[in-house]
C-alpha cells in the first residue's frame, strides 16, 4: 500500500493566499504523475484574519492539530496594518520553528536561465549552492540585560548560547548534504578572529564532526569576507553552514544575488521527523502587491518541491524544477520577471508542463 502523506496547507496572509493555491495546483499535478498520495488539511489560522476574529494567531490546540502531519506547507504571515509583525510572527511561524524543533533552515540559491542576475556577467550554473542555517540557538537568545540603565554608565549584555548538541547536529546535517553533492565542498561560516570564545569553539566542532566525512573538503571563512564572496565569487560555494545570525544574513543575501525574491524557497526541517517540517517561500506577505494576482508563485512552488524531496520523492522534486526552469525561459512570467502574466497564469503553466 502506498503511503498517504498528510499535509497542512496554511496560506496565512497577503500574497500567501495567492501563491499557495498555485503551489497546491502543481503538487496535485506532480502527485498524479508519480502516483504520490497527498492528503491536504486546509487551515485558516496562523493568519492575521484569524487574529482579528479571535485575539490570537492560532487556536490553543494548534500543536495537537499539526503534530500528526507529515509536513506543513506555508504561505506567508504578517499584515502590519492590522497586527504588529512581532505579534504575528512570534504567534505563529516562530512557534512552529521552536516547538517543532525545526533546527535546520535550508535555502537553495540558484541562478536560472531567463532570470536577470543583479551580479554582472554571471551565467546560470555560476551560482548554485545551499545555505544551511542553525535555526534554534546561537546569537538569538533572550539572555542578558541592561545595567545602570539611563545613566552614563549604561551597559547592555546580550548572550549567545551554543551547545555541543545543537552545533553538532547542524554541522552533521551540512556534512551529509555536502557528501551527497557532486562537488562535496562545505564552507563553514565563522568569525574566530573576533568572536574569540564561541567561534573558535564552533570551528573545533566543525573539525570534530568533519572527521566522519573525509570525502568532503572544508573551507572555514570569516563572515565578513564570506559575504563579499557571495557577491564577487559565488562559484566558490557548494554547501554553506552557519550559526543562527550569520545564517540569517547569508540566507537573505544569497537569494538576493539570483534575481527576484519571488523565486527563493526555504525549508525549516526537523530531520529526525519527530515533528513536522515546514516549507515556505523566503518572501513575506507583500501587502504592497496583494490583491492584484501578480505575485510570482515560483518560490511557493519550489518550496513544495523541497517538501516532496524531504518526503523521499526526488523524481517529483526534479520534475517540478524542470517545469520551473522551462517556464522561466519560455514564459509566462510575472511582472517581477519582466512579464505581464498573472500568478495564476504562471502557476497553471508550470502545472501543465508537469
Ligand atoms: P518579511 O515578511 O520577511 O518581513 P517583508 O514584509 O519586508 O518581509 P516581503 O513581503 O517579502 O517583505 O516583500 C518585499 C518586497 O518584495 C515587496 O516589494 C514585495 O512586493 C516583493 N515581493 C515579495 N514576494 C514577491 C513575489 N512572490 N512576487 C513578486 N514580488 C514579491
Ligand atoms: Mg512582512
UniProtKB/TrEMBL annotation:
Q: Which UniProt keywords apply?
A: Lyase, Manganese, Metal-binding, NAD, Oxidoreductase
For molecular function, the Gene Ontology terms on record are:
D-malate dehydrogenase (decarboxylating) (NAD+) activity; tartrate decarboxylase activity; tartrate dehydrogenase activity
Which protein, by its recorded name, is this? D-malate dehydrogenase (decarboxylating)
Q: Which residues form the Isopropylmalate dehydrogenase-like domain?
A: 6-350
Q: Its catalytic activity? A: (R)-malate + NAD(+) = pyruvate + CO2 + NADH
**Which EC main class describes this enzyme?**
oxidoreductase
Instruction: Identify the domain of life.
Output: Bacteria
Family indicated by similarity = Belongs to the isocitrate and isopropylmalate dehydrogenases family.
E.C. designation(s): 1.1.1.83
Cofactors required = Mg(2+); Mn(2+)
Q: Which Pfam families match?
A: Iso_dh
